[in-house]
Amino acid sequence: MRRQRHLLEKRQLLLENARWRLAVVWFCAGAVLFLILVIQSLGGVYGDQVQTAWGWALPNFLPTLAFMISVFAPDALLPYDGGGGQMVRSNFYKLSMGLSIFYLAILIMALLAQPIVVTIRGASEISQIAMMEMSNLWLAPLQGLVVLSLGVLFFLKKKDNDALPDASAFLGSRKKADGTTERETPRQTPGS
Amino acid sequence: MSNIFVILSFMTLVVYIAFIIFRRRDIHQVAIAAAALLVTVLLWDWLSTSHDQTSPPRPRPPPPPPQAETQTQTQPQPQPPPPLEDIFSRYADRFAQLPQFDLPAPTPSATAVLSQSAFAPRPANLFELHERILKALNECGYFENAFYYVPRGFALVTRIEQIDDVGAPLEGRHRWDVNLITGMRKWTLAEYLRVLFLAPSGRYRIIVFIISPLDFPKSDVIISRDEAMKWFSLGPSYLPNVYEMVEFSDDYRVTALIYEFYVREQRQNKDAHLVRPSHILGAEHLAKSRISLALLPAVRR
Questions:
Q1: Mutate which of B192, B197, B263 to test chain A, going by most A C-beta atoms within 10 A?
Q2: B113 in contact with A at a CB cutoff of 8 Å?
């Protein structure tokens, strides 16, 4: 029983924890991206095409950050439930996290690779703005996958019995004193 | 022989007459002795005259060697140089092989005047001076130059080059690249961060050496980089030999006009503008390009 519970806890985690971990990754990467763009704009890297550069960058990460904030906002003034709540499978969480990290790395690399590509190929052949526009070719499909995985984690606010099985499906059974077996019931949390 | 005979006879008669006088002989003996002495003198004179006529003439001494011709062959007499006006007017057609430099010259970014001690030992003429300058420029990598005519002298224009913010030429192929270098010049972290966060910028330089004894005023004309590049492309790359006739006298001055241009890609027109005045002095320009060092004689380096 204990082993099953231990395995169960390893295979899932609280949805709120998963959301916050993803949010930390997204906000940190967004901050790095934002700072790079600000310094480049002040340094005149993009010249007269600063608006084009920001027009490329902002839609790639800002809507996701805004969406996350909008999900966290309603629960910001509610007391903490003490550990209970919706659970999510760790595999799906790892998938979402991996996709997010990969997508954000590709996004930042589109800026960090500019000096190398311009040096190798020459600015007359490809400029920074052209590199940004070209990166949309691979960022767009990746963004679709990322948004889909994050949507599952961030759209769900509370348990839906018809949509997903609750944690009791992974709990074991115990023997009663009269020899019969019954399933363990999950702890009831207020408001659920 | 006859002269000896006459001389002995004369001496004998003189002695005899003296004996007669001191011994007080009579007057007849003195008269006879005197007459004998007279005859002896006349005989001596006759014999002398006849000897000059009959003896062969003495050979004339050889003429002295012609010393004046020998001196002119080994040491040519230095002729005073003709006046400059005569040279430039007499050979005007040969000096016309060079196009005339735009005068008054556009205001440069910096100026440097080279003293004549920089060219010690002093060249004899302007052609040797230009060879000395060309040699120094070649040592510094300036292998292509253009020449122009200026009154009483000439002008030498170097090829446009890219320099860094302190006046030193860029390394490798970037030095002679007229286009703006947008990538990394070398693979270092500092260069990477510079290209990542800063707009590309370029600094260019053209040096014009003017050799002339005249002092030319400078105009307020602001020249563009493209116009300055035409100085190099339109001027011939050689100096006519007629400049061998022009002596490099104390009146001549060698002035270096440095034209520095700067461009940053964020500018809308992207044209390099003339830096006036430059934050790099003219002497620093020549020092960073190593021209001033190359002009020094080998003994003094």
A1: B197
A2: no
Q: Where in the sequence is the domain holding A173, given as residue range(s)?
A: 2-74+85-183
| A100-131 per-position pLDDT tens digit | 999 999 999 999 999 999 888 876 777 888 88
Amino acid at B48: S
Domain tally, chain A: 1
Is B274 within a domain? yes
Tens of pLDDT, residues B136-181:
999 999 999 999 999 999 999 999 999 999 999 998 888 998 888 8
Would you say residue A191 lies in a domain? no
For residue B192, give the nearest of A36, A45, A115 by CB distance. A115
Give a yes or no: residue B28 inside a domain: yes
Q: Give the nearest partner residue to A114 out of B196, B264, B266, using CB atoms.
A: B196
B275 and B221 belong to one structural domain: yes
Domain membership of residue B173 as a residue range = 84-300
| Nearest by Cα to A107 from A132, A126, A129 | A132
Residue B173 is classified by DSSP as: G
Given pLDDT bands bounded at 50, 70 and 90, which one contains residue B31?
confident
Does residue A7 form part of some domain? yes
Q: Record the pTM.
A: 0.64
Which of A:45-74 have CB within 8 Å of B? 45, 47-48
Report d(CA A95, CA A25) in Å as an integer: 14
Distance of CA B66 to the CA centre of its chain: 33
Task: Report yes or no on B73 lying in a domain.
Answer: no
Asked if B198's CB is within 8 angstroms of A47's CB, the reply is no
With beta carbons less than 8 A apart as the criterion, state whether B157 and B232 touch. Answer: yes
Q: CA A24 from chain center: how many Å?
A: 9
Take residue A47 and report the two structure tokens written for it.
Answer: 């010249």
Separation between Cα atoms, residue B264 and residue B203, nearest integer Å:
9
The reply to whether residue A44 touches residue B196, judged by beta carbons under 8 angstroms, is no
Burial class (CB in 10 A: 0-12, 13-18, 19+), A120: exposed
Query: Looking at the domain assignment, is residue A192 inside a domain?
Result: no
Same domain, B92 and B34: no
Query: ipTM, 2 decimals?
Result: 0.73
The Cα angle at residue B56 between residues B55 and B58, in degrees rounded to 5: 115
Tokens of B118: 């920089």
Per the structure block, which two tokens stand in for A160? 């839906």
* Number of separate domains in chain B: 2
Hey, what are B131's tokens?
């060879």
- Confirm whether A49 is domain-assigned: yes
Whether B78 is covered by a domain: the verdict is no
Q: B95 and B41, same structural domain?
A: no
Residues B149 and B32 in one domain: no
Does B48 share its domain with B94? no
